[in-house]
Here is the input.
Amino acid sequence: MQPKYKRILLLSLKIVVSTFLCYFLIKKIGLGNFARQFQTAKISWIIVGLAVFLVSNLLGSLQWYLLMRHSQISITFNKALQYYFIGLFFNNFFVSNMGGDVFRIYYASKYSRNGTGAISSVFLDRFFGFSVLTMMALASALFWLQSVYAKTILPVTAAILGFWILLTAFFLNRHLAQGVQWILQIFLPQNIVQKFREIYVLIRNLRHQKFLVSVVFGTSVLIQFLRVFTHYIAGRSLGIDVGLQVFFVFIPLIALLATLPVSVGGLGVREQTGVILFSKLGVVSGKAASMEFIAYLIAIFSSLPGVIFFLLTKHNRHKYLDQKESNEDKT
Here is the structure.
């Protein structure tokens, strides 16, 4: 099967999964019930949620900027901020939560010698974020250790944690990396393997930058804290008051599951998981689903500056090309 048709098939399957999960959820809680719960949300809380999430996005752009500087990309913070928001916007509307990373790599590569630094910076940005989420999810599993509910949480957390341990070992253990490189050489052209090697070296060298790692890790913790707090604010807008600590138990798990490439932007997975988890604490299904949907809308609206930055970037590019053609005609 050609790659084009594979992508179409994969997209179709993801749409089917999201549609099925949303249909199943709406059928379970009732469309009218969901709408009534959604309409009771207090706008004042939602505005606060938008402000909190916007701050997390600003910190996210700072984190990526620091990682780009480490990857030898000469870029200003202003440009990093614009490209980060462009990536956020497209993340919300592509078939996965990482679709916007393609745009970030594209724009950052303009300031990189060969594009290697752009790829490594985006990868590291994701790596720190998912690592912090995994740690939060592990803490949540330990929180529920004495509960029967741990039987559901622990296997998922253990699988995710195992993946990150293997990935970390890959970057710390040179012999393991050489084994992977040997396998890649069998299936991939030499120039692609060389590109992987360059990316690997850039990422591996980060272990010598202890201060930078500490700053980026601390920033990532604060980013994830604010984004979890946004879900708490969304819950408060609906009158849900189960304690802030509960959100730090559930939301990392919901966020990690929503990033799995099985649905369109995590739609359906996010709401369905939220209902399952929060119903254990007596939160009615309609409120739990509405809360997760409101948190999703907050994320979308906070990324809207990315549209403006994208259009401005596109306009400036066309303006530059037009001016270049005009100069060439004169000569």
Observations:
- Residues 13-309 form one domain.
- Confidence is low (pLDDT under 50) at residues 318-331.
- The two ends are 49 Å apart (CA to CA).
